[in-house]
Design goal:
The longest helix is centred in the last third of the chain and has 19 residues. This protein starts with a strand and ends in a 5-residue tail after the last strand. It has one domain: D-tyrosyl-tRNA(Tyr) deacylase (D-tyrosyl-trna(Tyr) Deacylase, Chain: A, 3-Layer(bba) Sandwich), CATH 3.50.80.10. It is globular and about 50 Å long. By secondary structure, it is of the alpha/beta class. Helix 3 links the parallel strand 6 and strand 7. Helix content is about 25%, strand content about 35%. Strands 1, 2, 3, 6, 7 and 8 form a 6-stranded mixed sheet that branches. The protein has a two-stranded antiparallel sheet with strand order 4-5.
Amino acid sequence: MIAVIQRVSESSVSIENAIKSSIQTGVMILLGIEEADAEDDVEWLSRKISQLRIFPDDNGVMNRSLIDIEGEALVISQFTLHASTKKGNRPSYIKAARPETAIPLYEKFIEQLSVDISKRVQSGEFGADMQVALVNDGPVTIIIDTKDKK
């Protein structure tokens, strides 16, 4: 499971020119799921993101978590995070999970993150053509891969 976490002052996702979800201060997460991912990846990643100290404290030091600031989260499914570009110019998505694997894990991640931050997590729509807007605050962008849990 790969997550691209962006600290935002606002973010939204639209489908067919209508806003589906929006948040203010918090994180916008692009989530890529591969066939090898499991529920333990969901739990580990959710805990890691909810406790990640990427928000400034009173001294301007990144020392506060999403939980600490009572921030919001927007999760967008993003199978292209598992693109392989080793051969040729057309990316291969062979590592990306098929919907029957990915959808339950995507929904479980949203549910788990909601529990971890004690707040309803906003989301896009799995498999939809979405337009994502955000104001990346900082900018702060962090990439976490559950296959590299060091």
